[in-house]
Known about the structure:
Layout: H1 15-18, E1 26-33, E2 36-43, H2 45-62, H3 75-81, H4 83-105, E3 129-136, E4 150-155, H5 160-171, E5 176-179, E6 189-198, E7 201-212, E8 216-218, E9 222-225, H6 227-231, E10 239-246, E11 259-273, H7 279-285, H8 290-321, H9 331-352, H10 356-368, H11 370-390, H12 397-411, H13 415-425, H14 428-446, E12 449-454, E13 463-465, E14 485-486
Parallel strand pairs: 4-12, 8-13
Antiparallel strand pairs: 1-2, 2-3, 5-11, 6-7, 6-11, 7-14, 8-9, 9-10, 10-11
Helix pairs in contact: 2-4, 5-8, 9-10, 9-11, 11-14, 12-13
Amino acid sequence: MSEAESPVADPVSEAADDQKYKLSLKVDIQNVGPCRKHVRVTVPRSDIDHFSDQALEEIVQTVAVPGFRKGRVPASLAQKRFREDIASNVRQRILMQSLEQLAEENTLDPINEPNFDVESLVIPEEGDFEYEFDVEVRPDFELPKYDGMVIQRPIRDVSEVDVDNYLDRYLNQYAVYESHDGPAEPNDFVVAAVEFTKDGQPFRKISSIVLQLKPTIRFRDAELKDFDKLMAGVVAGAVKQTQVTISHEAEQVEMRGETLDAVITVGEVQRVKLPELNPAFFDRIGYADLAALRADILGMLERQVIYEQRQSVRKQVIDKITESATWELPELLVRKQTENALRREILEMEQAGFTTQQVMARENQLRQNAVTTTRQALKEHFVLDKIAEHEKIEVTPSDIETEIQLMAIQRGDTPRRVRSRLIKSGVIENLEAQIRERKAVDVLLKSAVYEDVAVKPSYEDDVQALSISVCGTSVVAETPKEEEKDDSEE
Length: 490
């Protein structure tokens, strides 16, 4: 078909006219699983004829055919020549309007788009047109009573010792690692080779990785407990044996819950040498002096206390309002949302000013229980979303801009660059939902009755987080100086 002969009718531009016509749909909706429905839609022949006549008339009036003036093309010729275009036009209009009418007349409340292949649908030349699809929908539940809940609110003061400990972690970013001839002490590093075996058979070998003598080494899919005790006093050449158990929700399904033997061979002990706190160093990091740095750390730790307090209070509130949330969620939906749930908690921790190691440790902890954690997070989302709808809570562009501004200040960056990173990582899509849920939690907290309880810091510096999986491959370098070398990748 030449460009001159192509029909110019646009079903989207004609949507307003189509809305005046009401389809005589027959709709059958069946439950086919947790939060999943199967929908069968029947469009009667009379509706198909209506749209076919309309599409044919538009083509007759708009296309040019050799030998005929525009608007004078015989309908029979146009019908024959533009059969495929008419069929495509009719199909698109019927689908658009039937889906819209379906949403208006039925309370499906879908989570995502219907799952069907539009191109595979064919409008029959005779008889009715029928199509069907599965769709994931929001769970249907009664909103629990949520005002006047009794909540325990954790409180603690930030001490000078807390500032000292954070300062040490902060300065470690600028430290150098020196070889140490003596025995390893707590918080020293060992450069080691690690061999994992399963039932006596080789499973994986990491020929070089830098591990810190902390109570827990946290991989993405496993944890090595009491590592500081295991490696206490080791020197170069020392060999230690231990075991690790793979998380029950690890990505590699067949390895879930499996126990591996691990042999750790120490190649070198390294000790951290912190930078000298002189004017050149403070100029490098953008502070006038040590007092200014400590003041900034104090403010950051106070924000972390607020974060911890909020998380504890939020958990209690969520636990109370989701006690009756016994409905199941489809496994596919849970797995699709796992990464979103991780991103959102990481985003909140970054906003509160936690160190990269603290954020990574929490991320690895979440990954080891990803499915369970995500299932609970989704239930929280649906309940909070319904509360937000009930309370008519909205998120404005100003709310989002304010959030980005705060993140920029906390990271010492520009709002433009923060926004760019959020967009690139896909987190920007979670930001509005996060703010809306936070506002819903605020509504709950305003009516709550509080009992203050003194607590210790919930984020102890006793974990080294590694961005690798025992069953997988590395993601990034593990320390500023050393990268893990995985023999299986050579």
